[in-house]
């Protein structure tokens, strides 16, 4: 077969979700490593007062595109924005644009979706299922379509412990659910949502499972691949290590921990955190698009637990020193929330009130607790995924393609990756200057001294209140000290005899 870069040469590609995290990396990788690609049509909607042209222009000014900008200053000419709205009939694509897409598109990458875990069911269904149906309808009209690649999630079937590379029967026939919800008001839908999603934790995983079923229903008419990435994190190698542009998933947790705000989290220490670098997912996606002209693939990616490295690379103006307590026990977690989250937040808000400022720390912690509670289902459980198709796909790549489109996570150095990830959140999400690290370290030392002073004062207070005023407490204290002294004396005597 032709190499992956040669395959995409002269091809026209349609991408949904191009302005999102994965979509940007996909666009950049195609432009940089497949320079012969003819055109990238990206579905974009106007947002926050910006036209689609402005959004795409701002996206391509991002640091992510620095490497491709150096190699081809005119790379932006290959990116063609198409006005679209996923919540509207026909995706709100104009007849002229639709005719253009039908005539020339060769590959479709469907990355767009709502990834909010607490999205109302109706809206999640519209974005993740109905929009997928309409895009498939458009794809079936394309005269030269060779592959339709759908980005799903490894957690679409998280109600199972072992997940194979198959499309499982949907919890409900998508068309029946869509028809039923049409006449219901939001209150009725909200009331029946828990019963509909069943053992799944949220509307996101539920609607992604339905979307897979919708895609499978067209597999006899189109060459289709389904990619199932797990938790997508910062880049591993490309276009440079540690690139990230959002607070989603582990990024928000890392930043909260690095700022010293998140001090406790309920999770299973024995469970595997299935984190995967975004560039690995994109490399696999492009390889699957190359191969899908003849065979259907269903793939997933999974990997290891994550540890923070912010003590070596501290964030600016941290609230407290980074420290995290991970426990699976509900009561212990609630205790640490009270001691490490709510009590310090109340004290800080009291200080703000006394100094004439508006209190805000308790509000931050309430939002943090809500976000963390949405992740508890995934941080407290473990899954096993079959990945035979991914291994087989890797076997079909040439040695050169294995380097250029590498998705073999066995080569990944995880401690180095996590450090780059943390530095990436500092540089690209918070826009903090690396030259300010010495000042940030000094700030952490200041916080450490404050903590030592507070603990000392607390010990003195406890001594005065509970020990100095009570004869019984003093007797217990002296008894404990006496036992410790006798133990040390015995230890020294034993060491002397041994010598």
The termini sit apart by 74 Å
CATH-defined topology of the largest domain: Rossmann fold
Could you name the ranges where pLDDT drops below 50 across 5 or more consecutive residues? 294-308
Overall, the morphology is elongated
The appropriate CATH architecture of the largest domain is 3-Layer(aba) Sandwich
The fraction of residues assigned to DSSP E strands is 5-15%
Q: Based on helices, strands and strand pairing, what is the structural class?
A: alpha/beta
Computed over alpha carbons, the radius of gyration is 27 Å
Please name the defining characteristics of this protein.
single chain, 499 residues, alpha/beta, Rossmann fold, 2 domains, seven-stranded parallel β-sheet, two-stranded parallel ribbon, 13 strands, 51% helix, 10% strand, alcohol-forming long-chain fatty acyl-CoA reductase activity, alcohol-forming very long-chain fatty acyl-CoA reductase activity, transmembrane
Could you explain how this protein is built, in words?
- With 499 residues, the chain is an alpha/beta fold.
- The chain has 2 domains: 4-245 and 272-304 and 383-435, Rossmann fold (3-Layer(aba) Sandwich), CATH 3.40.50; 441-498, no CATH class.
- The protein has helices spanning 4-8, 21-33, 52-60, 66-71, 95-104, 121-141, 174-182, 186-197, 203-216, 250-258, 278-291, 330-354, 361-379, 388-396, 399-404, 414-429, 437-467, 471-498, and strands spanning 12-16, 39-44, 79-83, 107-110, 147-151, 162-163, 224-228, 231-233, 264-266, 275-277, 297-300, 325-327, 384-385.
- The protein has a 7-stranded parallel beta sheet, with helices on both faces. The protein has a two-stranded parallel sheet with strand order 6-13.
- Helix 2 links the parallel strand 1 (12-16) and strand 2.
- Its main location: membrane.
- This is Fatty acyl-CoA reductase.
- Keywords: Lipid biosynthesis, Lipid metabolism, Membrane, NADP, Oxidoreductase, Peroxisome, Transmembrane, Transmembrane helix.
């Amino acid at each position: 077969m032709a190499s992956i870069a040669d395959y995409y040469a002269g091809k026209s590609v349609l991408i949904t979700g191009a302005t999102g995290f994965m979509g940007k990396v996909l666009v950049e990788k195609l432009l940089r490593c497949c320079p012969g690609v003819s055109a990238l049509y990206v579905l974009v909607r106007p947002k926050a007062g910006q036209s689609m042209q402005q959004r795409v222009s701002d996206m391509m000014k991002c640091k992510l595109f620095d490497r491709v900008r150096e190699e081809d200053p005119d790379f932006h000419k290959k990116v063609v924005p198409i006005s679209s709205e996923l919540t509207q009939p026909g995706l709100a694509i104009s007849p002229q644009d639709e005719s253009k897409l039908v005539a020339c598109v060769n590959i479709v990458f469907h990355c767009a979706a709502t990834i909010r875990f607490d999205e109302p069911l109706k809206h999640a269904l519209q974005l993740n299922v109905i929009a997928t149906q309409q895009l498939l309808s458009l794809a079936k009209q394309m005269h030269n379509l060779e592959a339709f690649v759908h980005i799903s999630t490894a957690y679409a079937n998280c109600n199972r412990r072992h997940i194979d590379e198959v499309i499982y029967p949907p919890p409900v026939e998508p068309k029946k659910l869509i028809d039923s919800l049409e006449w219901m008001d939001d209150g009725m839908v909200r009331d029946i949502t828990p019963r509909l999603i069943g053992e799944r934790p949220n509307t996101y995983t539920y609607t992604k499972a339905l979307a897979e079923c919708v895609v499978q229903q067209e597999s006899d008419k189109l060459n289709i691949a389904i990619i199932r990435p797990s938790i997508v994190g910062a880049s591993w190698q490309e276009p440079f290590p540690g690139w990230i542009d959002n607070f989603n998933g582990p990024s928000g947790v890392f930043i909260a921990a690095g700022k010293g705000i998140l001090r406790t989290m309920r999770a299973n220490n024995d469970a595997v955190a299935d984190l995967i670098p975004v560039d690995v997912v994109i490399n696999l996606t492009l390889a699957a698009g190359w191969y899908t002209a003849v065979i259907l693939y269903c793939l997933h990616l999974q990997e290891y637990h994550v540890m923070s490295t912010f003590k070596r690379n501290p964030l600016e103006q941290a609230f407290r020193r980074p420290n995290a307590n991970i426990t699976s026990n509900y009561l212990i977690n609630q205790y640490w929330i009270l001691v490490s989250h709510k009590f310090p937040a109340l004290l800080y808000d009291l200080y703000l009130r006394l100094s004439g400022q508006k209190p805000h720390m308790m509000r931050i912690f309430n939002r943090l607790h809500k976000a963390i509670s949405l992740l508890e289902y995934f941080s407290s459980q473990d899954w096993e995924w079959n990945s035979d198709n991914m291994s087989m796909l890797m076997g079909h790549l040439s040695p050169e393609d294995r380097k250029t489109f590498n998705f073999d996570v066995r080569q990944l150095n995880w401690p180095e990756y996590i450090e780059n990830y943390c530095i990436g959140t500092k540089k690209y999400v918070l826009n903090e200057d690396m030259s300010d690290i010495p000042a940030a370290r000094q700030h952490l030392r200041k916080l450490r001294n404050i903590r030592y002073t507070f603990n000392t004062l607390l010990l003195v207070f406890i001594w005065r209140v509970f020990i100095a005023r009570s004869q019984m407490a003093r007797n217990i204290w002296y008894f404990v000290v006496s036992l410790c002294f006798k133990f040390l004396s015995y230890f020294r005597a034993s060491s002397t005899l041994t010598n």
